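TA notes, week 10

Several of you asked for a full example with nothing omitted. So below is the full record: structure tokens for the whole chain, then the designed sequence directly under it. When grading your own attempts, check the secondary structure regions first.
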């Protein structure tokens, strides 16, 4: 259980201007005190924009350091990405979600929103590219979705950013190779 004083101290640390060294020290603190994860998740879901962004940034660095922290909170991360309206938070969460071993239910929860994020120009390029990567992983597990995803990615290739086109080309190439080997 985290006491209010500890929450306040941790919140103050989190809200300081973040440098790489500072965020890594917060990661070390969370690794030593795993009970802080639930509070970080709460900030992610219910905090103000700046709090949610910093919480998501902390979580991505924790993900990079030790993915075992996320086994039990995958659903909470997915719920957070589905409910956030902030592209910076969404980008960070999608990057982590791409590394999850998601269940069939989680795939179902992610497919339509990721498709929307991928095709809509109102989202940041990194969000769109990360959503495309998650859709690719889902399609590999559900090959019936490949034709739809190929069509959607192909339609993006003419007018999207270089990042979207690059990711799209790799995915379309992978689908073609997969088709040739079956």
């Amino acid at each position: 259980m985290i006491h209010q004083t500890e929450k306040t101290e941790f919140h103050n640390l989190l809200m300081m201007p973040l440098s790489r060294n500072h965020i890594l020290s917060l990661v070390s603190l969370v690794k030593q005190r795993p009970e802080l994860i639930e509070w970080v998740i709460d900030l992610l879901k219910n905090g103000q924009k700046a709090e949610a962004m910093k919480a998501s940034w902390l979580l991505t660095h924790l993900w990079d350091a030790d993915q075992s922290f996320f086994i039990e909170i995958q659903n909470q991360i997915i719920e957070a990405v589905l409910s956030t309206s902030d592209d910076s938070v969404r980008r960070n969460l999608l990057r982590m979600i791409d590394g999850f071993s998601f269940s069939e239910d989680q795939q179902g929860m992610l497919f339509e929103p990721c498709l929307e994020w991928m095709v809509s120009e109102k989202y940041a390029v990194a969000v769109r590219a990360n959503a495309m990567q998650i859709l690719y992983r889902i399609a590999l597990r559900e090959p019936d979705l490949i034709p739809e995803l190929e069509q959607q990615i192909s339609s993006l290739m003419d007018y999207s950013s270089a990042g979207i086109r690059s990711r799209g080309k790799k995915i379309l190439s992978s689908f073609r190779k997969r088709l040739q080997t079956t």
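Residues 27 and 62 are 5 Å apart (CA to CA). Use that as a sanity check on your answer.
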